[in-house]
Amino acid sequence: MQSKAWPYEEARKLLKRWPDGKPDGQPVIFETGYGPSGLPHIGTFNEVLRTTFVRRAFEELTGAPSRLIAFSDDMDGLRKVPDNVPNAELLHANLGKPLTRIPDPFGSHDSFAAHNNAMLRSFLDRFGFDYDFFSATECYRAGRFDDVIRQVLRNWDGVMGVMLPTLREERRRTYSPVLPISPTSGIVLQVPVEVVDAEAGIIAFEDEGQRIEQSALGGHAKLQWKVDWAARWVALGVDYEMAGKDLIDSVVQSGKIARILGGRPPEGFNYEMFLDEKGEKISKSKGNGLSLEEWLRYGSEESLAFYIYREPRKAKSLHIGVIPRAVDEYWQFRANYPKQPLEQKLGNPVHHIHAGKVPKQLLPLTYGLLLNLVSLPGLHDRDTAWKFVQRYAPGTSPASDAELDQLIGLAVNYARDFVVPNLKRRPPTAEEAAALRDLDSELAKLPADADAETIQHLVFEVGKQHFGKDNLRSWFQALYETLLGSSQGPRMGSFIALYGLDNSRRLIEEALA
Asked: How crowded is residue 499: how many other Cβ atoms within 10 Å of its Cβ?
């Protein structure tokens, strides 16, 4: 109740919303929305995970039942063809139609929406989320939204009164809270609509020069975006939904409409957007964000959760280059957790990632150190890397240390794809060469099983002799650039202990050759 961790702060909003619990023991409803017009990326997954953090915090505080709805807006008309899908001409031929009525350009599912929904659900299932998947198309067709559509028709002027002041003059002339589905073309029409009979759900509109009267119920029409959002909150009884900073105005307008429809807007907060490596907002249609599969080729699921948890109100870069640090920071926070007092534990991201059941296993070395190891010639495979790791950390094995085994595999993937192609060892300067020769001489005096701390002390002493105590940074930069071919690198004592004294001395010999 006192923790300042953001999931608890959000959960306490729901305690104020329902101080005596939801009536009749009903579950508190959390919702996340997803637009399946492009391939899923981490930005879409982000909402489900962050909402789950709040849901877990709420359950931890109250023990009350809850439910998470992952809602797909798959009845939306396709407005433009994403850049990152095959068979673009197939999508071009079906622009304007509901996503569930457009053939799948990948050829694996009944529709484009079904393909993209399946991609999202497979990842959510893999991550172990507890959620109920809702399809907008299914909700409309099954009549689940019929009552709230009638409310929109009954309160037409009130809804228009919220929306029209927010629109440009040109848009006002054609705006309608209800978007009929053309009975001839199947396109979601953006045309003026007349309410003929609110109770019966009958509307009239013009389609290809003809006046059409048809029902707005049962999937023959859908609601315009902000009205649709409000109607969904009311129809499904949503209590909590967060949204990106770019939707602040939409949240306000949908909240007003929800009240007009007789409902209560959900609690929630606005998070900052993810940016690509150029500082631009990631987009499904541009395909400039990371895919879920890309992160998991190079980083663990827990590291992704860790990155998403932290600083939700701060814009963060989301690209391949952030993965190694996210992995290592996750493990640092996990290592700190057991010895922290309760208040700090509740604010530790791993508490929320693991729902309070943080695994006790720790790693004997970092992802960054592994990257340096598997980037060296002849070490670009998991089995070879394991031989070095087992010498460095006796008693470990792929069978007994599954997380370490996974980490080695991820490091191998990252090194092959991004590190090795860019490595270029430079020759040392005369001053650096003299220091390397002295380092080699000192390493030759050490026993084969010298530990990382002993080696690190030796490296420091050689560096101080040649570069001075205040210029050790230049010494370590020289080690990274001449021995590893990189501008930055690991703690050298740990690296030499992992790679082995003889192998490390060979690196020095090659640099001096």
From this structure: 22
Residues 368-412 have pLDDT tens digits of 999 999 999 888 899 999 999 999 999 999 999 999 999 999 999
- In three-state secondary structure terms, 390 is helix
Q: CB neighbours of 165 closer than 8 A, spacing ≥ 6? A: none
**pTM recorded for the entire structure:** 0.88
Smallest CA-to-CA distance from 43 within 249, 226, 271 is with: 271
Q: State pLDDT tens for residues 87-124.
A: 999 999 999 999 999 999 999 999 999 999 998 888 78
Instruction: Report pLDDT digits (tens) over 55-94.
Output: 999 999 999 999 999 999 999 999 998 887 899 999 999 9
Strand 194-197 vs strand 202-207: parallel, antiparallel, or unpaired? Answer: antiparallel
Count of residues for the chain? 513
| Cβ pair 159, 177 in contact under 8 A | yes
Nearest residue to 409 via CA among 359, 361, 371: 371
Which H or E element spans position 33?
A: strand 28-34
Q: How far apart are CA 430 and CA 211, in angstroms?
A: 88
CA 216/CA 66 separation, integer angstroms: 32
DSSP 89-141: HHHHTTTTSBGGGSPPTTSSSSSHHHHHHHHHHHHHHHHT---EEEEHHHHHH
Residues 6+ apart with CB under 8 A from 487: 477, 480, 481
Quote the CA–CA distance of 117 and 133 in Å, as a whole number. Answer: 9
In this structure, what are the phi and psi dihedrals at residue 172, rounded to the nearest 5 degrees? Answer: -60, -35
Distance CA 346, CA 5 (A): 7
Q: Is 360 annotated as a binding residue?
A: no
**Can you tell me the distance from the alpha carbon of 257 to that of 215, in angstroms, rounded to the nearest whole number?**
22
- The Cβ of residue 82 has, within 10 Å, a number of other Cβ atoms equal to 19
Tokens representing residue 220 in the block: 């023959």
Q: Give yes or no for a contact between 248 and 270, defined as CB atoms under 8 angstroms apart.
A: yes
- HEC-encoded secondary structure of 199-226: CCCEEEEEECCEEEEEECCCCCEEECHH
Q: Is residue 276 a contact partner of residue 317, using CB atoms and an 8 Å limit?
A: yes
